[in-house]
């Protein structure tokens, strides 16, 4: 991207499918007790909409039953469970208490410093009622937007559910995002309330959050009327006119609050995610469909037995996985879950496995990047803990390489105690493909049915219509690759982009007629199973976090030193992809200034530390086609240390050798 110019890039080429051929059928022991059997596929195949209607009535309690399962007349905007009314928080909380499950543990919270809190369903219900009353006392009403900028602490879940209870729309902003990123999200959604904390703990040290909120709100022109601050790390915190302590406001609120039912299509939340342009998209999800598919997939993909299982999804609340599989689905299903605030290596690299042992975690849901990090740290660490409680292992966020999949199975999934005993039947591994936009699992094995393959998410969830198509939109044959599409609307689908329905249609529904374009490359193997191959657009995936090349390029060219920038995602052994930036400078920095550090920090401040390029390479030119498109494919070759591919369409054929020279090659 050039200063003041918009350049479009060429799309990535699809990787080759690995030649993985192993497959592991479920053990009879597991299948015999599995919640989901072949009958799920049969029912969904026989009558897709009827299946979803049945499921919606099974997993949720409706205040008013729906009269129509799907209204697709305004396609591509769907209405699911039309006419139905329900309250999300009532479904996650009150009804379990009414059903005699008030004493069941909903959340085991473990703070990074080792402090713990346990909430039963009865206690969590009370906390959410108090927060709902408190938010209402601050003037938050149905339909208002609430920005949530919190660490992984129970108040994050309480805040989200309190919003849902009163019909306010939460917009959670990941705590790792910068003040600028927070402000742009507050502005886009016109948030009325911000809920934050003084800070959190990171690697044994207090890490502040509140100053970023102060900075975000320092410029006038925002819509925020109050800032509620949870006291978490107890660091000194400056207070301004909008600020109030959570304890003062929520602590004083009544524990009586009656949940009113909202329409099935009432918006539940907005969650911003990176797209192919510089501006993040506010993905809108509504109530009935999102909760139905979240709960159904949580139950079936993970074989959830809520009376006995202890579920732990390690995702932060700032990402969709934390929305669907921390806040909503586990509680809708009446499950017991673990929430951990900190990093996996604090105070030691065995912390996660210590938590699995301590809480008897039975289902662990995490990301390939974490698994690869544990591989690097060595198997001796998990081998030193008793992981015998585990019975299902999940993966999400990026393609899992077969090596990491096998390690997950062999090291974590067969651990049967500290004495080195191994399980006779390794725990099944479920690789789950989905997106912020899809709201819930779309491709995933059923652990009691599917013979799983290392590295493949394999099969559509019952009731979901997935396909891989070619450029023309034709279904590809087995053994062929193409683009992942969704052929039929699904309950948890996004209902649009906040404030920009045209962009919604353009981004997802214009590439092919009547098919949702996911932006992922995929292949069907000889059995027709689906292997995900990564993004085909300008979205990168770093440690399972979506980042936009364009957004980082915009940030770089906004710096006075930079004339032009091109960003690519380069393969990385731990994080999947790493951000690599190529920049052309227009100003010569001061003698002795580390320009690379300056630019990395600039992006970190602008977007957030996760967006900081791993490498910034200063180059004299960027490779472009005659029409001015940056050929990222060639830069990717450079970034990944490969021989540079076909460069015949370059407008200036010497550019690549100039780049190589500037890098000292
Ligand atoms: C990628 C995260 C391969 C994919 C839930 C998708 C995956 C993007 C997988 C969505 C998986 C997620 N295998 N790729 N199991 N899961 N992805 O919105 O490229 O943060 O389009 O949602 O992550 O990322 P998002």
UniProtKB/TrEMBL annotation:
Pfam families: ACAS_N (PF16177), AMP-binding (PF00501), AMP-binding_C (PF13193)
Keyword annotations of the record: Acetylation, ATP-binding, Ligase, Nucleotide-binding
Domain Acetyl-coenzyme A synthetase N-terminal: 38-92
Cellular component, GO, one term: cytosol
GO molecular-function term, one example from the UniProt record: ATP binding
E.C. designation(s): 6.2.1.1
Residue ranges annotated for the AMP-dependent synthetase/ligase domain, each copy included: 100-498
Residues of the AMP-binding enzyme C-terminal domain: 551-629
GO terms classed as biological process: acetyl-CoA biosynthetic process from acetate
Family label: Belongs to the ATP-dependent AMP-binding enzyme family.
Protein name: Acetate--CoA ligase
Organism: Glutamicibacter arilaitensis
Protein's gene: acs
């Amino acid at each position: 991207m050039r200063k003041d110019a918009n350049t479009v890039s060429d799309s990535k080429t699809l990787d080759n499918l690995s030649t993985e051929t192993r497959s592991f059928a479920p053990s009879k022991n597991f299948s015999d007790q599995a919640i989901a059997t072949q009958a799920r596929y049969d029912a969904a195949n026989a009558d897709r909409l009827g299946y979803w209607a049945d499921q919606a009535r099974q997993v949720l309690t409706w205040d008013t039953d729906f009269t129509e399962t799907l209204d697709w007349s305004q396609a591509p905007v769907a209405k699911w469970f039309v006419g139905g009314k329900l309250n999300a928080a009532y479904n996650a909380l009150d009804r379990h208490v009414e059903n005699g499950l008030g004493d069941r543990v909903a959340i085991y919270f473990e703070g990074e410093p080792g402090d713990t809190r346990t909430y039963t369903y009865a206690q969590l219900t009370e906390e959410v009622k108090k927060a709902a009353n408190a938010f209402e006392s601050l003037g938050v009403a149905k339909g208002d937007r609430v920005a949530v900028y919190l660490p992984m602490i129970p108040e994050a879940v309480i805040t989200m559910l309190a919003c849902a209870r009163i019909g306010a729309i939460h917009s959670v902003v990941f705590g790792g995002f910068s003040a600028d990123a927070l402000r742009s999200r507050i502005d886009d959604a016109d948030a009325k309330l911000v809920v934050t904390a003084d800070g959190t703990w990171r690697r044994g040290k207090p890490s502040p959050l509140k100053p970023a909120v102060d900075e975000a709100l320092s410029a006038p022109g925002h819509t925020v009327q109050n800032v509620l601050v949870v006291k978490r790390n107890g660091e000194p915190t400056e207070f301004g006119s909008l600020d109030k302590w959570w304890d003062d406001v929520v602590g004083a609120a009544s524990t009586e609050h009656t949940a009113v039912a909202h329409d099935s299509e009432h918006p539940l939340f907005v969650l911003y995610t990176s797209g192919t342009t510089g501006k993040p998209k506010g993905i809108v999800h509504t109530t009935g469909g999102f909760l139905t598919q979240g709960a159904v997939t949580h139950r079936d993909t993970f074989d959830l037995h809520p009376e006995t299982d202890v579920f732990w999804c390690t995702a932060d609340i700032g990402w969709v996985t934390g929305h669907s599989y921390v806040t909503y689905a586990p509680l809708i299903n009446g499950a017991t879950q673990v929430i951990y605030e900190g990093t996996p290596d604090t105070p030691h690299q065995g912390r996660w496995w210590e938590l699995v042992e301590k809480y008897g975690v039975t289902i662990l849901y995490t990301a390939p990047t974490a698994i690869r990090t544990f591989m690097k740290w060595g198997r001796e660490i998990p081998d030193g803990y008793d992981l015998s409680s585990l019975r299902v292992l999940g993966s999400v966020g990026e393609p899992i390489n077969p090596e990491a999949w096998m390690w997950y199975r062999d090291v974590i999934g067969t651990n049967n105690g500290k004495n080195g005993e191994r399980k006779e039947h390794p725990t099944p591994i479920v690789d789950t493909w989905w997106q912020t936009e899809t709201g819930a699992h779309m491709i995933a094995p059923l652990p009691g049915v599917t013979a799983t393959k290392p590295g493949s998410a394999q099969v559509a969830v019952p009731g979901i219509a997935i396909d891989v198509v070619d450029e023309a939109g034709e279904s590809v044959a087995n053994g062929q690759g193409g683009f992942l599409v969704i052929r039929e609307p699904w309950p948890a689908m996004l209902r649009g982009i906040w404030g920009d329905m045209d962009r919604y249609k353009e981004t997802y529904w214009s590439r092919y007629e009547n098919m949702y374009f996911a932006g992922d490359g995929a292949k069907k193997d000889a059995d027709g199973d689906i292997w995900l191959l990564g993004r085909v657009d300008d979205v990168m995936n770093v440690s399972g976090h979506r980042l936009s090349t364009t957004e980082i390029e915009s940030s770089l060219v906004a710096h006075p030193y930079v004339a032009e920038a091109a960003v690519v995602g380069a393969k990385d052994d731990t994080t999947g992809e790493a951000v690599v930036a190529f920049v052309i400078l227009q100003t010569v920095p001061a003698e002795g200034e580390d320009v690379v550090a300056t630019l990395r920090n600039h992006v970190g401040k602008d977007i957030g530390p996760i967006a900081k390029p791993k490498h910034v390479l200063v180059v004299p030119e960027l490779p472009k086609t005659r029409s001015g498109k940056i050929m990222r494919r060639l830069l990717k070759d450079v970034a990944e240390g490969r021989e540079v591919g076909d460069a015949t369409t370059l407008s200036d054929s010497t550019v690549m050798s100039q780049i190589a020279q500037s890098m000292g090659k």
